[in-house]
Amino acid sequence: MKVGLKTQILPAGGHAVAEAARCLTEGGLVAFPTETVYGLGADATQAPAIARLYEAKGRPSFNPLIAHVADLAAARKIARFDATAIQLAEAFWPGPLTLVLPKTDNCPVAELATAGLDTVAIRVPAHGIARDILRAFGGAVVAPSANISGHVSPTTAAHVASDLTGRVDLILDGGPVEVGVESTIVACFDVPMLLRPGGLPREAIERVLGHALQRLPEDAVNDDAQPLAPGMLASHYAPRTPVRLNATSVEPDEALLAFGAAGIGGASAAKAVMNLSTAGDLSEAAANLFGYLRALDARLARTIAVMPVPHHGLGEAINDRLRRAAIGR
Ligand code: TXA
Ligand code: MG
């Protein structure tokens, strides 16, 4: 690994967007904010840049990347959209929805970024800075979350810097992100299937479709032959401290990740307490989730005890990430 790169951190604004576009064109690695989490971008057409990206994250190259584009017209040069895909793109782009679609015949995205699959994941982010970079750059940018592989996704530039300083060329600081969990991933083949719950609630998608989304079969995650969702490795999003779910009380040597107004036994004696949302607001909880996991992880508690979070709306994505965090690494 070529660590010891000089990583430049720029506040978004001024010449930062032009600098980001120039860096991408030259094959550089640029971390930038999206509405979901910070992404680590590379030019989708430059295999050497993409190889550096996998190396910088320590990510296995069989786990493909999401191509980010400025609009649906750009997306259609990369992927084949059926009627359902068009319907979802028109309803939710720009926004926290990724579609997995068959590649076009002349798909410009490098094979390395799609792990040799004949499908490609694609999204149009809603964040102003991400959109400005995509417009200035003019092509597709592949961008996984800007964290070391397996670590908690970054929701601030400081999180990115703590994982990737010395490993990337440029970090654009656009402040904390709005959504806080990664995009929802839907595969559109014969029937639309939910591959990853995320920042766009399943219910919103089902309302547009007029029917339920198919679920990912449990074994699809571990089937190495041709995994449907290659990145949904069971352990992921993990802090170093073990995570204990559905806590109804907490011990003095534990840290507590709370939710809602009701307290639980032992909270006043716990090593640390952070509340995802005292008002019980799932959007607020999603926005706080990864930052609070990082903060509690730093307290070196025996475990992070987590109170139950309701499973509807963004709660599905929050519980998915918590479940993966609890499996550990
Ligand atoms: O919100 C997000 O989606 C963020 C921001 C930066 O856009 N990106 C993100 O990327 O979460 P990443 O690499 O951390 O997660 C992408 C997921 C992985 O689980 C990967 O396996 C899956 O998308 N994926 C990519 N291409 C795929 C494909 N062709 N078929 C199935 N899954 C795919
Ligand atoms: Mg990730």
From TrEMBL:
Compartment(s) of residence: Cytoplasm
EC number: 2.7.7.87
Major site of localization recorded for this protein: cytoplasm
Chain residues that bind ATP: R59, N63, T119, S145, S153, R196, Y237
Reactions the enzyme catalyzes: L-threonine + hydrogencarbonate + ATP = L-threonylcarbamoyladenylate + diphosphate + H2O
GO cellular component terms, semicolon-separated: cytoplasm
Pfam families listed in its UniProt record: Sua5_C, Sua5_yciO_yrdC
Chain coiled-coil ranges: none
SUPFAM superfamilies found in the cross-reference section: YrdC/RibB
Enzymatic class: transferase
Keywords: ATP-binding, Cytoplasm, Nucleotide-binding, Nucleotidyltransferase, Transferase, tRNA processing
Sequence positions that bind L-threonine: T36, H68, R123, A143, S183
Residue ranges occupied by any YrdC-like domain in the UniProt entry: 14-200
Keyword Ribosomal protein recorded: no
InterPro entries named among the record's database cross-references: DHBP_synth_RibB-like_a/b_dom (IPR017945), Sua5-like_dom (IPR006070), Sua5/YwlC_C (IPR038385), Sua5_C (IPR005145), T(6)A37_SUA5 (IPR010923), TC-AMP_synthase_SUA5 (IPR050156)
Alphabetized GO MF terms: ATP binding; double-stranded RNA binding; L-threonylcarbamoyladenylate synthase; tRNA binding
GO terms (BP aspect): regulation of translational fidelity; tRNA processing
Superkingdom of this protein's organism: Bacteria
PANTHER family named in the record: SUA5, THREONYLCARBAMOYL-AMP SYNTHASE
Record-stated family: Belongs to the SUA5 family.
Function: Required for the formation of a threonylcarbamoyl group on adenosine at position 37 (t(6)A37) in tRNAs that read codons beginning with adenine.
Protein name: Threonylcarbamoyl-AMP synthase
